[in-house]
Amino acid sequence: MEALFHCREYDSVEGIETLKLGLRDSSVLLRHEIAYVMGQMSVAAALPVLIELCDNLVEHPMVRHEAGEALHALGVITPEVLACLLRHVDDPCLPVRQTMQLSLEGLQRKCPPEIRAKIKERNATNDPVEAPKLQATDSLVAELQRQLLDESESLWNRYEAMFKLRNMDTKRSAAALAAGLSEKSSALLRHEICFLLGQLQVVETADAMMDRLADLKEADMCRHEAAISLGSLGCVAVVFSGGQAAGGHNVVSGLFDFLKALHPSSQLFGFLDGPKGIFTNRYIELTAERLAKYRNMGGFDLLGSGRDKIESDAQKRSSLEACAQLQLHGLLIIGGDDSMTNAAVLAEYFAANGCRTAVVGSPKTIDGDLKNRFIEVSFGYDTATKTYASSIGSVCADVSFSRDAYHFVRLMGRAASSVTLECALLTRPNLTFIGEEVKAQNLSLDAVCRQVTDLVLERRKLGLNHGVVLVPEGLIEFIPELGDLIAEINELIYNHSREETEQLLSASARKVYELFPATIRDSLFAERDSHGNVQVSKISTEDLLIDVVKRQLAEHQFDGKFATISHFFGYEGRCAMPTNFDANYCYSLGYTAGHLVHHQCNGFMAVVRRLKEDYTQWTPAGIPLVDMMNFERRKGQDVPVIKKFLVDLEGALFRYFAAHRAEYRLKDCYRNLGCIQYEGSAANAPNFMPLVCNAALK
Predict the structure, then answer these.
(1) Record-annotated residues binding substrate (predicted)?
(2) 414 belongs to an annotated ligand binding site
(3) 212 close to 189: Cβ distance less than 8 angstroms
C-alpha cells in the first residue's frame, strides 16, 4: 500500500504502467485502491485501464465502483468514457449502477450542450447542484439530515446533502452524517458517508462506523471504507506487562508508525508502570519526539512495566472506564503468556460490557516458553540467548587458559530450558542439564549430581581439572522430589504460616526439605512471584549441586582438585540492546498489532511467521488468544492460561544436541562467539529456535 500511494506522486504514463502491474494481484482491496489512485492522477493513459475495469463483469463490485468514480474524478470527457458510463447505468449490481449514474451527473457540468442533452435523454435525473460551505445552524443541519435519509429523494440530492454536511465541518453536522449510516437503500451512499466521516475525524462518529464494520452482512465497500476511516480516528494505547525483553520499544515504534501512516492525527498513549497504569488511569501521550530516543533501544523504560494483574471486577471496570475516557479504538498489551491471559480476560470483559476498545497482544518473553503452532518465537529470546552466549563464551575462553576450575552457569528459564539448550548449541560446554530431560528420566537430585561427579572423575583421568556446566534456573522444579516439595509449599503457603507449612508437609517432602541448607530453605519461603509461586531465580541451584557433588566426590575418596566458580546470567539479558533480528521482529509485531486494532480484532495476538527467512519474506498474522489457552493450577485454583512451550525431546534442536554432547563432555570444543553483531554476514541471523531443520544446525 505504501508503494501504491508513492506512485500517486508520479503523475506520468510510467506511473500508470506501474500501477497496472498491481491489478494482477489477488487482493480486491489492492485493486480497489489502485483504481482510486489512478483517479487522483492527471494522466489520460489511465482511461482505458479504468474503462476495462468497469466493463469486467467478473471483477469485484468494489473495484468496478472505484473505477467508475475514478473516471469522473479524472474529468476527461471522451466518447469512450461516456459510452462506458452509459453501458453501466443499468448494471445489475446496484452500487456499480449508482456509481455510473453519479459519474454521468458529475460529468454533465463539464460537457458541451449537445453531449449533455444526449446524456439526459439516456439517463433523466435532476441537474447536479454544487455543495457550498454553509453556516451550520441547527435547523439547516436537521433539514439536510432529513434529505440525506429520505429514500424518495434522488441519489444526487442525497449526495448534495451529504457533501453540504461535510463542508459544514462541525460535530453536529458530522453526527447528522453518521446518522445516514442507518439507511438501508444504498451501500454506495453508506460507503461515501464513511469516507467523508474519515475526512472529518470526529471521534464521536466512530460507533456508527464500528457498527457498519462489525455487520458481516454489510457490503464490502462500506465495511472497507469504515475500517479506513476508523483508522483516521485512530486512538490507541499500549502497555508493557511483566519483565523486560529486548525490542519492546520497537513494538511501540511499529504501532506508532502504523497509526501515523493511517492518518497524521492518530494518537498513541502509553499506560505507565504496567497493567496497574490502566486501572489507575495513569498514562502519557507518545509523540514522535518522545519516542525517537527509544527506537532500537533495550529496556522498558519508556513506560515502565509491572506484574500486576487485572483480576477483580473493580479493576476490570476501572480499566474499561480508562479506555472509554480516552475513547480508545485499541489497547496493545505487550507481555508473556500470563499477560496474554490478562489480555484475553480484558477483551472478553470489554466485549460483554459494550466497550469498543479492541484488546490485542504481542508475544514477549526471553524464556522461549511462549511458542506454539502460531508463534515461532517470542521477542527478546534472540537477544537474551546471544547475550548469555557471549558471556558463556568468555567463561569458556578463560577456563581454556586457566584450566583450574569448574564453572557452573545458571541461566534464566523457569518452566522451560530453551535458553539453556540454545546457549549450549552456541557455546558447547562440557555438561548441560535440560530440565525436561531430567523430568522425563525421573532423575533424583542424587542422580543429577552424579552426572557432574562422573564428569569430574573422568576428566581427572585425562589430566583435566576444569570444565563448564550449564544449569537452567528451573532445574530444581524438574527434579521429582524437589518439584513435589515446591508444589506442596506453593499449595499450603496461601493459607498457613511458614511454621505451619513445615509441619503440614508430607513425610517424603519433609525428608527432602531437611536435607537443604538454611539458605535454600529460606529461599523456598521468600516472597512469592505474581503467580503465587516460589521465585526459583533466587534459589542458588548451582550451589546446591556443587555441595552435593563435593559430598559424592568425598565418597569416592577423590584426591584431585575440584575448585568451583558459580555464575547467574539473568537480568542482563532482558534489557540488552536488541539484536537486528529482535529489532526487526518487534517493529513488525507492532505494525501487525496496528492492523489488528484497525480492523477491530478484539482478543487477538499479533504474530509474525516464516522467521527463518529473510525479514522481507516474513508473514504477519493475527491469532485468537483463546485458541492458545488451557487450564493450569495457580494460587490453589484452576485458571485459563496459555500453555507454556517446553523443550521437545523429540525435536530437531534437542536431537542435534543429544547427538553431539558426548563429544563436548571430555573434549574442550568450546566456542566463543564474541559480542552481538550488528553489521556483516552474521548480523541478521536468527537463533536456532525458528530453524526447524537439522541442516540449519550444521
Answers:
(1) 365-367, 412-414, 473, 571-574
(2) yes
(3) no
Does residue 483 share a domain with residue 467? Answer: yes
User: Residues 277-301: pLDDT tens digits?
Assistant: 999 999 999 999 999 999 999 999 9
What whole-number distance in Å separates Cα of residue 470 and Cα of residue 553? 20
Q: Establish if 202 belongs to a structural domain.
A: yes
Residue 477 confidence (pLDDT): 83
Spell out where 336-388 has E strands: 358-363
Residue 443 and residue 569 share a domain: yes
Q: Indicate whether 179 and 276 sit together in one domain.
A: no
Indicate which CATH number applies to the domain containing 322: 3.40.50.450
Q: Cα(535)–Cα(525) distance, rounded to whole angstroms?
A: 9
* Residue that is written with C-alpha cell 505504501 in the block: 2
Residue 3's CATH number: 1.25.10.10
- 579 known ligand binder: no
Whether 597 is covered by a domain: the verdict is: yes
Catalytic residue among 367, 369, 382, 582: 367
pLDDT at 531: 57
For residues 462 and 333, membership in a common domain is answered with no
pTM confidence score: 0.69
* pLDDT higher than threshold 70 for residue 130: no
Q: What does the block give as the cell for 258?
A: 502504523
Residue 594 pLDDT > 60 = yes
> Annotation-wise, does 335 bind a ligand?
no
Same domain, 437 and 569: yes
Query: Is 137 assigned to a binding site?
Result: no
Residue 644 lies in a domain: no
Q: Is residue 643 part of a domain?
A: no
Which of 596, 593, 595, 600 shows the shortest CA–CA distance to 207?
Answer: 600
Q: DSSP string spanning 577-617?
A: PPPHHHHHHHHHHHHHHHHHHHTT-TTEEEEEE-TTS-GGG
Sheet holding 431-432, edge to edge: 431-432, 467-472, 406-411, 564-569
Give me the domain span that covers residue 182.
131-233
| Tally of domains within the chain | 4
Does 387 share its domain with 434? yes
Helix (H) or strand (E) holding 332: strand 330-335
- Nearest-5° Cα angle at 591, 588 to 593: 110
pLDDT value at 116 more than 60: no
What pLDDT is recorded for position 106?
A: 78
Q: What is the mean pLDDT of residues 339-361?
A: 92
pLDDT digits (tens, 9 = 90+) for 544-574: 899 899 999 999 999 888 999 999 998 889 9
DSSP SS3 for 624: strand
367 is catalytic: yes
At a CB cut-off of 8 Å and minimum separation 6, what does 690 contact? 376, 377, 611, 612
